[in-house]
Design a protein that fits this description.
By secondary structure, the protein is mainly β. Helix content is 0%, strand content 38%. A three-stranded antiparallel β-sheet has the order 2-1-3, with no helix packed on it. A two-stranded antiparallel sheet has the order 4-5.
């Protein structure tokens, strides 16, 4: 099984699991689905890397 995440504006908004062949050729918005077993809805995607969103307990970034 392979898991793909739908990324919209840099955020994972949906996930789908497919058989070992992966995303079907006719799947809508195919270019916005990116394979990841770990990423969850709400995770961020930037420069080809998924990362969890900042925790509410994390301090905001400081301006430099």
């Amino acid at each position: 099984m392979r898991t793909f995440c739908f990324v919209q504006d840099g955020v994972v908004v949906n996930r789908a699991v497919f058989d070992d062949e992966g995303l079907p050729e006719e799947w809508p918005d195919r270019d916005f689905w990116i394979e990841s077993e770990d990423a969850q809805i709400g995770w961020l995607y930037e420069d080809g890397v998924f990362s969890p969103p900042p925790s509410a307990d994390d301090p905001p970034p400081t301006e430099q």
